[in-house]
From TrEMBL:
The keyword Transcription applies. InterPro entries: RNA_pol_sigma-70-like, RNA_pol_sigma-70_dom, RNA_pol_sigma70_r2, RNA_pol_sigma70_r4_t2, RNA_pol_sigma_r2, RNA_pol_sigma_r3/r4-like, WH-like_DNA-bd_sf. GO terms for cellular component: DNA-directed RNA polymerase complex. Transmembrane segments: none annotated. Signal peptide: none annotated. Residues 129-180 form the RNA polymerase sigma factor 70 region 4 type domain. It comes from Neptunitalea chrysea. GO terms for molecular function: DNA binding; sigma factor activity. The lineage of its organism: Bacteria, Pseudomonadati, Bacteroidota, Flavobacteriia, Flavobacteriales. It comes from the Bacteria. This is DNA-directed RNA polymerase sigma-70 factor.
Length: 187
């Protein structure tokens, strides 16, 4: 137990310096704890997985602020709990806003599901722009984005395709999305 604790402390130190192997070790060590915690809270695998990914993303972004007098797992769980609370608040707000809007607009709105020519053109332009941004990523990040969002593969399928562990796929995808968001923000 002492050896694992030392390894965790070393990994935190290395992660603060940007070491990807340290990030991967911390993710592998705590993924099941955070995911299990969220699965109990959300009772939904997709929400639990999304919140877990967001938890690690936020933790890794802010790891230099981690105070080592506290347990790393406790810090992760706190981040995870807060992300879940934010999600619940956002959904409640969205639901109540939608309910009010639905009752006000029900008489006046007649839905037209068919996209207009302008909608189709905008979608094509946005897709072309997004593909241009994706091409600026390193090839291995392009690949996981392509497999996940364009071919709609599961993490397990991607893992088999690129012959890497699932946690590596999750970290790569997380990193790819973050880099893509930064590229888009710059434009």
């Amino acid at each position: 137990m002492e050896i694992k604790s030392e390894r965790i402390q070393q990994s935190i130190q290395l992660a603060k310096k940007g070491d990807q192997n340290a990030f991967r070790f911390l993710l592998d060590t705590y993924w099941n704890d955070v995911y299990g915690f969220q699965l109990i809270r959300t009772k939904n695998e997709n929400d639990a997985e999304d919140i877990t990914i967001q938890t690690f993303s936020k933790a890794f972004d802010k790891i230099e602020r981690f105070d080592e007098q506290y347990e790393f797992k406790t810090w992760l769980m706190t981040i995870s709990k807060n992300l879940h609370i934010d999600l619940v608040r956002k959904r409640k707000s969205s639901i109540s806003h939608k309910a009010i809007q639905d009752t006000d607009d029900a008489i006046f709105n007649v839905p037209d599901d068919a996209p207009s020519a302008e909608d189709i053109l905008i979608q094509e332009q946005n897709l072309a722009k997004l593909l241009k941004y994706i091409k600026k990523l390193k090839p291995h990040y392009q690949e996981v984005i392509q497999l996940r969002y364009f071919q709609e593969m599961t993490y397990e399928e991607i893992s088999g395709t690129i012959e890497e562990p699932i946690n590596n796929v999750k970290v790569k995808l997380l990193r790819a999305k973050k880099l893509l968001a930064e590229i888009i923000k710059k434009k």
